[in-house]
Design goal:
Function: Catalyzes the reversible conversion of 2-phosphoglycerate (2-PG) into phosphoenolpyruvate (PEP). It is essential for the degradation of carbohydrates via glycolysis.
Order of helices and strands: EEEHHHHEEEHHEEEEHEHEHEHHEHEHE
Distance between the termini: 48 Å
Shape: globular
Subcellular location: Cytoplasm; Secreted; Cell surface
CATH architecture of the largest domain: Alpha-Beta Barrel
Number of strands: 16
Helix content: 25-40%
Largest sheet: 8 strands, mixed, barrel
CATH topology of the largest domain: TIM Barrel
Bound molecules: phosphoenolpyruvate, magnesium ion
CATH superfamily of the largest domain: Enolase-like C-terminal domain
CATH class of the largest domain: Alpha Beta
Main location: cytoplasm
Number of helices: 13
Family: Belongs to the enolase family.
Pathway: Carbohydrate degradation; glycolysis; pyruvate from D-glyceraldehyde 3-phosphate: step 4/5
Number of domains: 2
Strand order of the largest sheet: 5-6-7-11-12-13-14-15
């Protein structure tokens, strides 16, 4: 019987130059695989704990404690277990930690090992990761959400909303959609240049120009779609991640670029207005994680026509999602494995969402690496959507390029495109 024979970790760099965990697992048959954990900037308050050293090394951001936890306690707890029982391996780490949020071991330690175990199991069986995690039923290529203008805490510009994304919905397959999106991206660069705006990139590879309202980025993207020769709304739609938890101030939400502070109701009206003017099909974190009344209002006003995605709101946590489902809040969930801490728990949340008709958007973090685990994971779970930045930074294209590869392998692959929102 094949078992987990060695577990180890080292500290490596993420795409922002911050240290993160790379975990490696070796099986008794000699199979050896690794995984690198991502890291967020606009994190939800209820996310699992990312263990940081807090000393002077790397300005307090080192992860040597998490690395040590993998090399000692985690290794001791899971060596000898079967790599083919992911739930059991993940449960052993959960039990070892003993807290709700991986407060002892660190979710960065646990997730790294969890992903490396899945990868090693797949390799040992000689099948791709998406096939191992999703079985014969894994066949939906996700529609990408490409973040082409960055603001908020992902860039040093004036734009308040964090992400302005395009979604290639009117295409027959993933590769065509990705190509068209990249064309829009290049046209956007020309348009920004011609306006004399900055074309420096934010953390996720979108441009980070100073624009004078939160509507203006949508206008320039509309121009870019047209200039690239595509029909906005039919072929390329727009998605936003406001990351509104980051905008909370005394008395409401602060929109610095517009020099005003608005209430939840006013912000919801702003979205209603934007959705009436532009082909916006998805809004993520339109209200803050603590503003469930605002979320309720948003869901009542737009929930029947726009995808409303809870990120900071649900933090990939099945119990919080269950509360949201019961209260009729949002209609979709962002899936970030490091918010919850293991592969199995991520799958549990996706199952709950899918059973209740909530859409699932697999997602990267703003701090990423060359690891493309989420590309396979999105296909495995038939998520239908993935958000992983623009096509102009290697840690983001790693995911898109992996999906292009998967697309050639999945015989009966489905690309949902416009049917996602019908
Ligand atoms: C990807 C995101 O950013 P971060 O990783 O900083 O939370 C997000 O908010 O959806
Ligand atoms: Mg978000």
């Amino acid at each position: 019987m094949i078992f987990i024979d060695e577990v180890s970790a080292i500290e490596v760099m993420d795409s922002r130059g911050n240290p993160t965990v790379k975990a490696t697992v070796q099986l008794s048959d000699g199979t050896r695989e690794s995984a690198v954990v991502p890291s967020g900037a606009s994190t939800g308050k209820r996310e699992a704990l990312e263990l940081r050293d807090g000393d002077a090394r790397y300005m307090g951001k080192g992860v040597l404690k998490a690395v040590e936890n993998v090399n000692s306690q985690i290794a001791d707890a899971i060596m000898g277990l079967s790599p083919f029982n992911q739930a059991m391996v993940d449960a052993a780490m959960k039990e070892l930690d003993g807290t709700e949020n991986y407060g002892n071991l660190g979710a960065n330690a646990v997730l790294g090992v969890s992903m490396a175990v899945a990868r090693a199991a797949a390799k040992s069986l000689g099948i791709p990761l998406y096939r191992y995690l999703g079985g014969a039923n894994a066949m939906v290529l996700p529609v990408p959400m490409l973040n082409i203008i960055n603001g908020g805490s992902h860039a040093d510009n004036s734009v308040d909303f964090q992400e302005y994304m395009i979604m290639p919905i009117g295409f027959d397959d993933f590769s065509e959609g990705l190509r068209a999106s990249s064309e829009v991206y290049h046209n956007l660069k020309t348009i920004l240049k011609n306006r004399g705006a900055n074309t420096a990139l934010g953390d996720e590879g979108g441009f980070a120009p100073d624009l004078s309202s939160n509507e203006e980025p949508i206008q320039v993207i509309m121009e870019a779609i047209a200039k690239a020769g595509y029909k906005a709304g039919e072929q390329i739609a727009i998605a936003l991640d406001v990351a509104a938890s980051e905008l909370v101030t005394e008395g409401g939400y602060r929109l610095d670029s517009e020099n005003r502070t608005v209430t939840s109701a006013q912000l919801v009206d702003y979205y209603v207005d934007l959705c009436s003017k532009y082909p916006i099909v998805s809004i993520e974190d339109g209200l803050s994680e603590d503003d469930w009344d605002g979320w309720k209002l948003l869901t009542e006003k737009l929930g029947n026509k726009v995808q409303l995605v809870g990120d900071d709101l649900f933090v990939t946590n099945a119990s919080i999602l269950a509360e949201g489902i019961e209260k009729g809040i949002a209609n979709a969930i962002l899936i970030k494995p490091n918010q919850i801490g293991s592969v199995s728990e991520t799958m549990l949340t996706v199952r709950l969402a899918q059973r209740n008709g909530y859409k699932c958007v697999m997602s990267h973090r703003s701090g990423e690496s060359e690891d493309a685990f989420i590309a396979d994971f999105a296909v495995a779970l038939n998520c239908g959507e993935i958000k992983t930045g623009s096509t102009a930074r290697g840690e983001r294209t790693a995911k898109y390029n992996r999906l292009l590869e998967i697309e050639t392998e999945v015989m009966y692959g489905e690309y949902l495109g416009s049917s996602l929102f019908n």
